[in-house]
Amino acid sequence: MTREYLFAGFGGQGLLFSGKVLAYKGLIEDKNVSWLPSYGPEMRGGTANCSVIISDEPVGAPIISYPDVLVAMNLPSLDKFEAQVKPGGTILVDSSLIERKVARDDVKVYYVPATKLAGENGFPTLANMILMGKLLDVFSEYDMEAVRAALGKCVSARHADLLELNFKAMEIGKEYQD
Amino acid sequence: MADKVLMKGNEAIAEAAILAGCRHYFGYPITPQTEIAAYMAKRMPKIGGTFLQAESEIAAINMVYGVSSAGKRVMTSSSSPGISLKSEGISYLAGADLPALVVNCQRGGPGLGGIQPSQSDYFQATRGGGHGDYHMIVLAPASVQEMAQLTIRGFELADEYRMTTMILADGTIGQMMEPVSFDFEIKEEPEKPWATTGTGMKRAHNVVNSLYLSPEVLEIKNIERFEKYDLIAEKEALAEEYLTEDAEIVIAAFGIAARVAKNAVNAARAEGIKAGLIRPITLWPFPVRTFKKCLGTAKEIISVELSMGQMIEDVRLATECKVPVSLCKRVGGMIPSPEEVYAAIKAAAERTGE
Amino acid sequence: MVVFDKPRALADVPLHYCPGCTHGIVHRLVAEAIDELGIEGRTVGIAPVGCSVMAYDYFNCDMIEAAHGRAPAVATGVKRADPDNLIVFTYQGDGDLASIGTAETVHAAARNENITIIFINNAIYGMTGGQMAPTSLPGQVTQTSPYGRDVNACGYPVKVCEMLSMLDGPEYLERVAVNNVKNVRMAKKAIKKAFQNQIEGKGFSLIEVISSCPTNWGMTPAKALQWVDEKMIPYYPLGVYKDRSAGIIPGAKEEAK
Prior knowledge:
Chain A is an alpha/beta fold. Chain A has helices at 15-28, 75-81, 114-120, 127-138, 144-154, 160-175, and strands at 2-10, 32-37, 47-55, 69-72, 90-94, 108-112.
């Protein structure tokens, strides 16, 4: 099985980090993975995105034309990528930043006010990880041990406190129901 | 996952270079290869190595020339416009028969071009790039694992043949992360009796030089160098073949284009089209024999490139124009989708079908 | 009694320089310094592009021929390859060092790269047949300034020692000349000190040697040496422009006043 994820939003929202955690989790679970960021000046506060592929097969092209999953953290990203999601695919929307609803009816959509929840819980920069918790839960892939191990690979040991906050954010996302 | 780590292609190059014994890196910032410099800046001071941000690409390649003259493994990296600047120095390295590793993480051109991935420096890399009769060994990685592996191999080849090896990567392979293992066997570096390490008053002086004012001598030098190139072409050409045994439509693609093409080949096979892929790993020397071999079944070859069609000329030369060779391309930083390549395969199958 | 002998570090081959050219003198001074300091076996010299391009044949230490203007970058590489052992010098003319290689010169100085630079300033491109150099004097007639260097059209000469002395980086900058016995003696002292500094790890030392080019100046050797006195030295005053260890630091001097 192959699943292709596209994380999209503003630079600075931690999308590349989310993608890396997801890719590391795949690696820990012995999957084939690739992670590809958009790069360049647009990363400095403009739109940023990151493609992650998790597969049982060797990964061919790391570039994604039609994602299975879109995680949208701003309106331009949803506008740009909504139509490209595969029929039957999944869209996660940060509903505290995107007011409109997804127009398509052939995809599963989850609205999570991630930025709002992050602010309320005292870690305003971790909306990305709230969405990540929800994302893993949606696919019943929230394996706590693998999640912790993946976070451990992405957060340096000197910042153990950050690791716990990331983990807490993911837990909030996992528990969140529309 | 064993011993694998998730790493960017550019970082994998840097780590592999250190494993290969390279302790001298010189560079100048340019997107999309800057991670190599950043990695070296962090690591080199901790292992007694030298990281130096040079005043220009020109200075950087000449610092490489200096370290190589002194007999040590050394590298620089840049992206397309920076490689143009380094080309003077690369020509001098060739003329002085000095080993070095140069990484080109290609972006779109000409001129300042763009910063998105490209393969439009193929001619520059495979023909030499600078002035004079010379070649570099050109390696084209298609994965982060190969970025590491070919870097180590690149140092070995450079030392063995006393010439520059270029890693011809692109923005995508440089920026993407994949699992990579650094479980490599590192061969011992060869002796370099020609190096300018100081005579120690024990031998006649060594001279590193590319100047030969006598045309008779310079002619011999060039001919000898090309005898070496012939040997390399014979021994070192390398390609990956994928489903080529019975392939009627053969894709020729390297680097990131080959990964896209592989998806398309799989899609075509699922539709019953006998498609295959030849992925040159050495661009110079070009894997001529692999292409000749596919002529038994091939009805058409499609060169998939991130350029206006550069490698296609080598494909035609290698196959002596015995089958049609068409081009499937995106340029300017665009990458063809597997669907586009599949469409090209389908069209070729229809053209060549009885 | 031996009154005159060839320095060991200088190869026993005929030099290709024109009659009256001062390259031969400076080669000899460099070789004498290498001999006296006993460093030939660990010295690597870098030859430029220009008249002294074939200096790699004239010194017995290991030699490298660099691309035009790039000698300081090459020297940086060599020095960094074996900093504790090797003594590295470049030997460059004015076109090489002060025109095409200005960036390499300035940045090697700014880094206080522990190398020695011998800079031959004869105000002309010799090898290519007498074109205007970055150091050609205002009004100087050359092949490419046939009506005299017009500063309105092609700017003013580059004063390398003065320019570099404003940088915090370099250790030692001195301008010398080789047009008479006294000046040759001074030049010898400066060149030796530039190597000694490197041995002691003090950093970047550059000796600018005001030289003559009778062939391309269109003068007899004697007249050329006179021209050095009358025209060159007034424009390029001799002396120490910076010597950090001796407390000669132009910037700091201002503060002291």
